[in-house]
Amino acid sequence: MIDEKNLRCSPGDLSRMEADDDRVLQSFLETRKQMDKNIEEQAISNPSIHSHKGEEHAQLYRKYMFAPSPELPEIVYNYLKEKRQPPFALVADVGCGSGQSTRGLAPYFQKVVGVDESKAQISEAKQNTLGSNISYCISTAEQLPFEDGSVDVVTSTTAVHWFNFEKFMKESDRVLKPNGCLILHTLSEDFALHYKDRSESVSAVFMEALEFLFKYAHECFSHVRNKYQLIFQAVPYTDKKRVGDISETFPMTVTELMGFIESLYMYQTYKALDPEGAKEFLPKTQKRILETLGVTSMDTKMDFVAQYYSVLARKPAEDQWELVTIEHGGA
């Protein structure tokens, strides 16, 4: 039995849930439990695998992981405005890494707090942040450092698939204000590179390299590959929507592209499991990229195209909803 006793759900709406939706949710939660167990076991057996915690990786991540599309914080703010009246005091960016997503939220909120369990990532974030209304703290997504009903928005960018979803959802529900919002973004796995008449060929080389690294992705990466569709279905709030095809194009040099590849946790996992293979992978990929572009300079600029998907949900008002226990049949 799966007990979600701290999730706020309407008894009326629950009675109208379709059987298919119920089975999807149960399947998701059962699968997530196994994924969470696997992540914990792998972290114990080999801390380098599926980890963003090390100092070297955190430095690469800060240097080469690009900031999310400026459209994402606008989506957060505009959605919240639909559900609550400003001013908006506090947004929590959970799984903030080295602060790329956190900084973009600063113009819209009185206080922005980035939360990550990695001391190394938080250290990098603090070194990179100048905003007076931004702060960071070391904490897990499953035990958020906020008082009950104190947060306007809980958001996360390309991170929630790593969390223990049930515990994170309960914590988000606890800290959100009535009519506060839960907003979860993910970077799509689909990228493109544009360069003169070589766009299609260089994109193919890049995606081939990524497909190889995807073999070293944790199974929770499946949520990224399906563009957070199951995560959307599993969010228990009924006032919710999923937004897709948010595109961002920006210049990127070959040096920056190779740094981006190296900063990916899949590459770091490959490096932990096969150091020699990983050492050869980067120069081989770099050589193919340069040859496909028909250039020799690592400063050659391309247009890098990234896509995002977002799950947006509103926590119901206290006087309209009550805490209930949802139990799903099954093992």
**Secondary-structure element sequence?**
EEHHHHEHEHEEHEEHHHEHHHEEE
Poorly predicted spans: 1-21, 42-51, 319-331
Classify the beta-strand content into a percent band. Answer: 15-25%
Biggest sheet, in brief? 8 strands, mixed
Q: Compute the CA-based radius of gyration.
A: 20 Å
Distance between the termini: 6 Å
Helix content: 40-55%
- Give the number of DSSP strands: 12
The helix tally amounts to 13
Rough outline: elongated
Structural class: alpha/beta
- Kindly report the average pLDDT value: 83
What is this structure, in a nutshell?
By secondary structure, the protein is of the alpha/beta class.
What does this structure look like?
The protein has 331 residues and is α/β, with parallel strands linked by helices. Helices cover 43% and strands 22% of the residues. The protein is built from 13 helices and 12 strands. The strands form 3 sheets. Strands 3, 4, 5, 6, 7, 8, 9 and 10 form an 8-stranded mixed β-sheet that branches. Strands 1-12 form a two-stranded antiparallel ribbon. Helix 3 packs antiparallel against helix 11 (254-263) and helix 8 (199-214) packs antiparallel against helix 13 (275-293).
